[in-house]
């Protein structure tokens, strides 16, 4: 079983360099996927209130037999629960479903640009949860530079992470540079160019990209492993998603080789600037709102 290096967040908390994502994983498949990941050696699971599978993540962690302290649990507050009191309550919903008293990393799932005061109030609630020891680290997701700038104007705690869409076809270099400058760790979702991206954006699947394929052949690795290695060597934390035990294991086996500077540059050159996920500026309660059930 490979030893996974830890990355140190800006408050000293350590997070494994690779975790399992469970976006779009149906609840009944989530338990098995998480159990497979934990038996493979993963020690970080990333979920969200809006995914509807926090309960199954918690059940799998409990069933794994691992001590609670051995698994780094991350979840996200959805936009319907923004606001100070609402976000404090959202913590209770998430922790209740996960079956834990403390969440390792709690982040805001999106900025709400049209009601940014609610976003700021939600982040103040995260700061309170951090101060009270209910969470070990706090952060954001899908925040662009203007959102981060406005947040940092009022925040007392710099976000530990910004979870953003990053893969060879969409690299968000401006956001990444801002995050690095401010000590915010980039977490890459859809790190191998997920299905949403190539279905909707006119690109082919990044797994079939000839440049990545050539590098994979040269390294004796798979295209997915090459893409994950590209992220890790550039300092990003990754949360690849799969429900297949074989793929889960393949995505984890990315620590026994290095890409050359030339190979990294070749992957960098694949950036198209085309986003696969929702446009962050377009996120509103009217278009994306959904009520999050109680625990």
Provide structural commentary.
By secondary structure, the protein is α/β, with parallel strands linked by helices. It has a single domain (6-288), classed as TIM Barrel. The protein has twelve helices and ten strands. The chain has helices at residues 27-40, 54-63, 84-98, 116-131, 145-154, 173-181, 195-200, 210-219, 223-233, 245-252, 261-268, 285-288, and strands spanning 6-8, 14-16, 20-21, 44-46, 72-77, 103-108, 135-141, 161-165, 185-189, 237-238. An eight-stranded parallel sheet has the order 3-4-5-6-7-8-9-10. Strands 1-2 form a two-stranded antiparallel ribbon. Strand 7, helix 5 (145-154) and strand 8 form a beta-alpha-beta unit. Helix 1 packs parallel to helix 2 (54-63) and helix 8 packs across helix 9 (223-233). The mean pLDDT is 95.
Strand tally: 10
CATH topology type: TIM Barrel
Strand content: 5-15%
Could you name the CATH class?
A: Alpha Beta
* Main β-sheet description: 8 strands, parallel
Helix and strand content put the structural class at: alpha/beta
What is the molecular shape? globular
CATH homologous superfamily label:
NADP-dependent oxidoreductase domain
Low-confidence stretches: none
| Helicity level | 40-55%
Number of separate domains: 1
The helix count comes to 12
Output the radius of gyration: 18 Å
Mean pLDDT: 95
What's the architecture in CATH terms? Alpha-Beta Barrel
| Secondary-structure element series | EEEHEHEHEHEHEHEHHHEHHH
| Head-to-tail CA distance between termini | 35 Å
For the largest beta sheet, what order do the strands appear in spatially? 3-4-5-6-7-8-9-10
């Amino acid at each position: 079983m490979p030893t996974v290096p830890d990355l140190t967040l800006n408050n000293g908390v350590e997070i494994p360099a690779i975790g399992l994502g469970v976006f779009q994983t149906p609840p009944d498949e989530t338990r098995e996927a998480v159990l497979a990941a934990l038996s493979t050696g993963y020690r970080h699971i990333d979920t969200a209130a809006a995914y509807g599978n926090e309960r199954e993540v918690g059940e799998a962690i409990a069933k794994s037999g691992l001590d609670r302290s051995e698994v780094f649990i991350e979840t996200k507050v959805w936009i319907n629960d923004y606001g100070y009191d609402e976000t404090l309550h959202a913590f209770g919903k998430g922790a209740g479903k996960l079956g834990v008293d403390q969440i390792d990393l709690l982040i805001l799932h999106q900025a709400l640009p049209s009601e940014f005061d609610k976003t700021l109030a939600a982040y103040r609630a995260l700061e309170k949860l951090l101060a009270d020891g209910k969470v070990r680290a706090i952060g954001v997701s899908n925040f662009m530079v203007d959102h981060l700038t406005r947040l940092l104007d009022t925040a007392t705690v710099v976000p530990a992470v910004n979870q953003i869409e990053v893969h060879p076809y969409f690299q968000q270099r401006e956001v990444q540079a801002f995050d690095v400058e401010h000590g915010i760790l980039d977490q890459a979702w859809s790190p191998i160019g997920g299905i949403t991206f190539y279905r909707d954006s006119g690109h082919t699947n990044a797994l079939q990209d000839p440049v990545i394929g050539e590098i994979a052949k040269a390294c004796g690795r798979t295209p997915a492993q090459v893409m994950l290695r590209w992220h890790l060597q550039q300092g990003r934390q990754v949360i690849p998603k799969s429900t297949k035990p074989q793929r889960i294991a393949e995505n984890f086996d990315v620590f026994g080789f290095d890409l050359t500077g030339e190979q990294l540059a070749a992957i960098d050159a694949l950036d198209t600037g085309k986003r696969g996920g929702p446009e962050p500026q377009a996120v509103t309660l009217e278009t994306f709102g959904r009520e999050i059930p109680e625990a």
